[in-house]
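**Paired protein data**
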Amino acid sequence: MDKIIAGVEKFSGWLWGVPLIALLTITGIFMTVKLGFFQFKYPLYIFQQTLGSVFKKPKGEGTVTPLQALTSALSSTIGAANIVGVPAAIMFGGPGAVFWMWVIAVISMAVNFAESVLAVHYREKNEEGEFVGGPMYYMKKGLNMKWLGVWFSFALMIELIPSIMVQGNSVAATVSQTFKIDGIYTGMIIAAITGLVVFGGIKRIGRITEILVPFMALLYVGGAVVIVILNINQVPAVISLIFSYAFQPMSAVGGFAGVAVAETVRWGFARGLYSNEAGLGTTPIAHAAAQTDHPVRQGFWAIIGIVIDTLVVCSATAFVVLSTGVWKQEGALADPAALTTIAFRESFGAFGSFLVTISLIFFVLSTIIVVVFYGSKQAEFLFNLKAAQAVKVVYLAAIVLGSVGAAKTIWSFLDLALAAILLPNIIAVLLLSSKVKELKDEFFESEKYYLKDIKEKKIS
């Protein structure tokens, strides 16, 4: 068994290295070119139509508001990796990895946009009158490949069991370390809170995440901004490190072992892609329920999701780690995941550790809530609403089992399961890329949407 696990880990490590990073990057560049570099052409308009319109009544029909769809999607992407994954990218890829993380974020906006546009365009109403959609629906209706939708749906439904176990274990370990509470109790409390939210459906999830996500993001990013201000004299040097070592190898310094440019690019791309989940097909499930008058308008909200997740939250972590100098401390390479906590503790004392712990708990809790919803939508697509409710119970049990460290051996298969979800979705996005372009052109050329918005803006 140990040999099998070692073999799986080696293969998944290779697969999630150059092959899948290259696939996602090429897909992002292809979609960016095909859609006419629209994320570079209309940044102000995209902002105005999303965060700039949160106090306006949404147009069109849907189950939740566009903001609630965004916060639900962000709940799954903003997680522990934003706090512990970024320091790892810096330690193994150098400060230049941050630059490449930004580059892939901008490129992958086109992929996330395409997924969400397709999810809204091909969505359906379920038995309860709620809008449902995602890769499984655009595979079935857009490509007439129900078998591909079944593959995606089944793979995601199963993959979420070990994924939720890992999340449960993560939050239990964090709580145990800080508050000395046994993992089983943490798992039961998290499962109970999750159950109260997810059995209320997407409307309740939307209402909760609409409050939870801005709160947790402001709490963590606010703390990070204070640390950067405290080290403001280091900011020019940090910016210089990020840009200069994006294109040249960096030699060893302090606890940092040195790195080649190829590794810098790989770690930056990997961190950006893993964080925002572009291409994975998960966030479109949340965006599909949004109230909107055109799929492209909701696609703009998917772009803002990447801005918040990668360009804001991940960047906040990077600046904290680099400006405080913790990445150069002796022994930093041994435990990169702890660097953010160390930086906060050195800046704020015991309160700093507490702040990171609370942020981690909120990040992981919100992730669990939304991925349980994602999994239940797969069961609904494959079977029916009753199956969706039953799967929720399985996921709640997985939280408790994960919190006590059960079934750690199957965690090794997690990356392989993720690849089984990503591949059919990327195939579908590429095959439907012309449909995305058609919808994008329709939106920007029609008097009903973009041109109307521009005229109204000029009049006001």
Notes: The beta strands are 124-125, 131-132. The radius of gyration is 21 Å. The chain has one domain: 2-459.
